[in-house]
Amino acid sequence: MLMPVEQNYETYSAADFLTDDAFVTHQLDPTRASAQFWETWLIQYPHRRDVYQQAVDLVEAIRLGLDTYAQTYLPEETVRRLWLRIQETNAREAETAVRTRRSGWMRWAAAAAVVLTLGGGYWWKSATKPVTPYDRQVTALSESLSETVNTSRKLQLIRLPDNSEVWLAPDSRLTYPADFGRKNRVVYLSGEATFSVTKDTDKPFFVHANDVVTRVIGTRFTVRAFFREKRVKVQVQSGQVSVYRNGPASSAERPKGVMLLPNQQVIFNNETAQFDKMLVDTPAIVITPYVRKKTPSFVYNETPISQVLRDIKEAYGIDIHYNKEALENCQLNSTMTNETFKQKLTIVCATIGATYEIIDGQVVINGGSCQ
Amino acid sequence: MNEQELWQAFQEGDENAYTRLYQLHVQAMYRYGMSLVAVSEAFVLDCVHDVFTELWAKRARLTTPDNIRHYLLRALKNRIMHLLERKEHPRRPLEEVDYDALWAEPNDLEILEELEAATTRQQRIQRLIEQLPPRQQEALKLRFVENMNYNQIGEIMHVNEQSAKNLVFRAVEKLRSWIITLFLTFFTFF
Question: What range(s) does the FecR protein domain occupy (chain A) (predicted)?
Answer without folding.
Answer: 150-241
